[in-house]
Model the fold of this input.
Amino acid sequence: MQKLNDNAAAKTPRAIIINQAMEPPIVDALKGLFQSSERIKEQYEEGYMGYAIGAAWAMDQNVAINTVGALNGATTITINAGGQSGASLILSNAGSVTALLKKGNVFTIGSGATGCFSVNPQEKTSTGSLQCFTVTADVTSSGGAATVPIFPAIVLSGPFQNVVAAPSAGASINVFGAAGINSPQGLCFHKGSFTLGMADMILPTGGVIMAERKSSDQLGLSMRYIKAYDINSDRLPDVSMSCTGGRHSTAKPPAE
Done:
């Protein structure tokens, strides 16, 4: 929640999605918070969070699992030189390690005086929290050096400035999780973070048994339904439901 607040995300509606392994311990850990006794009862009886700490909770078995890279043993990986910005960082003390860092790993840089702190998106003053960076591709080091692609890119000035100052030379790379650990990546986001856009697809005028399209301005959805003979499998009819986001097709025998 703090990261959303630091980045000026609207307070409601927010959602948290976790996987099946995360849900029971979170329910147990948060059961002592001051809140409605009815919600505590639901959590105990149903085993899910429901609505708590300003967000609607849900469980999904498809929450991604991320594996932390091999890192470099007990050696702390550091920033090679000060003043770096942009979508990559050059690192030192990285050894010669295959999969030093893996895509999806998250890290902060330094601490205290060497910390790379995030800024308020409007005032550009420090939030007091270290900026988090995500590795966007697997990284292998050689001869103690490595270049890691990151998101967000480091922006030092202007309307999209996102850190107080560039990382300091020798500042530590603080990776979330121990080397090789598999960690589920729960999601916390505002409803406006994602948008599904659909356009009205064309309707064929010949060569089909029937073709219809249904749209809803209120829901922002549009789907197309086509029934036609499938010449590839010699089946009649083939029923196809399509939208701009994907396609689903099933073949059924003709009606009696």
Observations:
- The chain has three domains: 2-65, 69-179, 210-251.
- DSSP finds three helices and 18 strands in the chain.
